[in-house]
Amino acid sequence: MPKEKSAGAVIYRKEDGKRYYLLLHYHSGHWEFPKGHIEKNETEEETIKREVLEETGIESIKIIPGFKEYIKYFFRKGYGLSPEEKKKAPWVFKLVVFYVAKTEEKDVKISSEHIGFVWLPFEEAFKKITYKNSKLLLKKVNDFISEKNI
Ligand code: ATP
After folding, report:
1. Where in the chain are the domains?
2. What is the Cα–Cα distance from 17 to 114, expressed in whole angstroms?
3. Which residue is closest in CA terms to ligand 1's atom 16?
4. Closest atom, ligand 1, to C-alpha of 27
């Protein structure tokens, strides 16, 4: 089975002491964190910084040490295919490693890879995220940074 590995970040910023999380709206319909394929010879951090810049226009993020979580899922690679064709498309196993990153930048300029973005406080972001594994990731991140009070 083909395998893909990506790296991503749960990005947050603070405004008036409150945390806001950044979610992107993917073409296939889901709301998720910024992430992307790890290119050859790239470290996970390098991938994250490159993808965050490409996908959001955010130039400066600080990756918070001490947090690293994996999400795994299977999907059929069939973006742009008809429902009939998609049923026959091969399954892909995907592993995504996530870090937490803080930014001071509020302005977001999405690329053609996405159709929207939103900054939301924890409870609303939790509801908005499409997949359960990513909701659980957000909960872990929120607990982690709340504990550190950062
Ligand atoms: P990348 O941002 O890593 O380049 P991509 O945009 O090519 O990835 P994914 O976001 O991995 O694609 O989406 C591919 C398929 O997997 C879609 O059908 C999507 O609905 C599904 N998917 C995305 N995230 C998850 C998840 N956390 N759990 C389960 N399925 C997911």
Report:
1. 3-148
2. 29
3. 75
4. 6
Mean of the per-residue pLDDT values of the chain: 96
- Structure confidence at residue 142 (pLDDT): 98
The tokens 């930048």 sit on which residue? 105
Which residue has its alpha carbon closest to ligand 1 atom 26?
131
Nearest to 125 by CA among 13, 17, 26, 22: 22
The alpha carbon dihedral of 127, 131, 137, 141 has a sign of negative
Could you read off the pLDDT of 33-75 as tens digits, one per residue? 999 999 999 999 999 999 999 999 999 999 999 999 999 999 9
Cα separation, 60 vs 3, whole angstroms? 30
Which architecture characterizes domain 3-148 according to CATH?
Alpha-Beta Complex (3.90)
The two tokens of residue 43 are 């470290």
